[in-house]
Amino acid sequence: MNKTSLLALCLLLGAQTAGAGSVVPDAHYDDLVRKARSGDTAPALEYLRQHVKEQTRQQQEDHIVIASWAGRDSEVLEAYAHVQDKSALSAPILASVARAYRNTRDYEHAAQLYRQAEKIAPDDPQWVMGEMLVMADGKRGRDAIARGRPWLGKVSSPDEARLRTVMAYAWLSVGERFEALHEVHQAFLLEHPGPFDRDVLERYGQVLSRAELPMAGLEVDARLTPVQRLQKQADEMALQVRMSHTGGRQEADRFVAPDELISRYHSLLSQCDRTPGAEGVARQMRIDRMGAYEARGMHRQVVAEYEQLSREGRIPSYAEAWVAQAYMALHNPGKADELFRDVIAHESPKDDHWTEDNQNHVRSLLEDDRPGDARQAMDTLLPTIPKVHWSINYPLPQVNENWLSTQLLDVDVMQANGDERKAFAKSRHLCEIAPAQTSPCIGYGALLEEQGRYRDAEYQYLVVQSGMPRNQSLEVAQLVNALNLREWHRADVLAEGLTQRFTDEEGSRQALRQNEIAHMAEFQLSASKGHSHSHGSNGSNGNPIRGNDDLHIEGTLYSPRFGDHWRAFLGADYTSGEFGTEESTTDHGRWQRGGVEYTDRNTVATLEASTQRFGDVGQQMGGKVTVDRDINDRWHYGAAYSFRSAETPLRARAEGIWANQGDVHASWTPSNRTSVQLSLSPWHFSDGNWRWQSSLSGSQRLWTWPHARLDGLLAISGSRNSISHIAGDSSIDAGNRKTGADYYSPKSDLSIMPGLRLTHALYRHYDRQWEHYLELGAGRYYENYTWRDSEGDHNRHDNTPLWMARYGQDIQLSDVLNVGASAQVTRQSYDGVSERDIQLMLDMNYRF
Asked: Residue 541: its pLDDT value, please?
């Protein structure tokens, strides 16, 4: 006899007893009880509530039973509280109260009542089964299994079948799905071929559903209502949604499952609209459908569905993880951070997705430019993940993939916090200890590229390619590497492969965008405006090199790339400056140029022709050829030759003097933290002057913070001229003044200026970045020149201070538009007189 039948019999007998000794009418109460047995519990409960104080002992028990049938747990407990002698209650009544305690999650009182019921009827296993269910709900699943195991083989087959379904429930509570399936299978065999007990079938279906076999549970119990059947199908769909996020599918089929799920959800939601009472199932389907949308890369649909559902009620945390990932893909990491925090708050380290959700949370903080918060979150995550794990039938420990992926993420956190050296060392170590894994070595290659070691990164990718030639992350990294190495054809081949296979992946889209930009036309613009002020009198007016109130504008337009290696370009330049002594004149210069640029893996070469017009000299032709070569990632050299060089001082060009310029240069860049450049330039002026100019410059990263960096700078330059200009009083012996150069040309000079540059990031959000910087330098300027006074010409040697301050801002408005502006103040002496030079500069680069 099951619990329902037993309770009904007790209630019927109780009604008859009440008629014998109660003050209430017999027939009326009997009718209320019969209605309650048939399912209409409201009249009986209303009557019993009105007569709480007049209830007999049996009516108090009736109140408990009928309220239990109605599912009113609080009323059951209230009626139980009115019973004075609780020790006289029957076992079924105690079980009803225990069930109410269980439903209200008061597991301790529920277990006590089931144990009291067992003492009253020790041969009935249903009280033990009730206590087992309570123990399983109270996270004591293994105790529940131990409690029921002694009863196996000692009860009837129907009772043992029910007992095994309860044990299966307990096994599920501790995560043992296969043990649970074994128990329900044994229960099924005990009642085969039937008829099957309804409780057994119901629990069998529940276990199959919770064991992620909901459709099998649907087939077991054919007596489900339409809403219940939709619920089973919703559970099956939810399982398939989780499977659609796994990476075991073929490349061509990776979107087949999400597309089928989305189509099937559309059909099932239509059924829910036509089924009364299926509103809750429809909401669950819409929540789970967001997972299918996310697997398909339909991020905007995920966010739109989430915003609508969140207005109707709370969204479960597992679905918030999908929404957070969608916000990340839509470049809204701040919103993703809020959702990931909520997801993690509802998880524990034992949950399957705990590590992945914590990692994604750290990524959201990094993308939101919050490296300090990312460091704190990473420090919390790192100790929770063991380095190795043991596999069955394998004698050696293996590297834990969750540990490895977390360590790789820690490298990114180190980079963001300025620990570049530690990040590089750790990345290299991870690649060495897990060479069979693609991610560590690809990540190491990416760090090599950030340091400008493109060929070393290429070799690293080739090593990975030998084991995983079709890996998407590898092909993305190789495409970026090909662009950095100027291997345009290889980049196009890789881009074509990614377009065919991984167009919808975020990493692929970014790499394809870089390749698209590399093939765009380009416009470069630079402009500067200066003003000079002399502190003293040397017969000059402002800066002797550029003049006073100088202006320079230069624009260059490059064509899209053609023939893999070539770009044509056109440019126009304008320059002006005010020179003179007592009566200043403004000199002007204009020139137009055009040519071609050739680039390949190791070479950048340009060939240029120009037309030039300076002052009243008339139009002249000029030309320039440059060749730059890479020996390897660290060493580079180049040479250039300019006929009628555009860099000839404006004052000389205005006087009809032009110069041919040669240049040889070399540079050493062991990393992105260190660089040294050396150049030597011989000039031959049309007035016979030979100028030899050399320079040595370098920079060294001194310190790095999460949003700032400090670099040390050094600039040394010097020159020697065969014909010197003559400084001093130009009115003296004017007839002989032409013996000197008509432009600034000291016999020799040397400037040495060390400095510091502090760069601070104001804003960073994906392709948009905003930085400002302050550059300070101080040194000495040595000049050997000719000075003319009333006593004649004299050699002078000056050793004067030199300083410079510059402030600027660089703004990257998008991945195709960069704008920079700066202001610079320089204090330097020329011919013994200090000049203060103020320069305003603007530059822009735009690709289209």
From this structure: 58
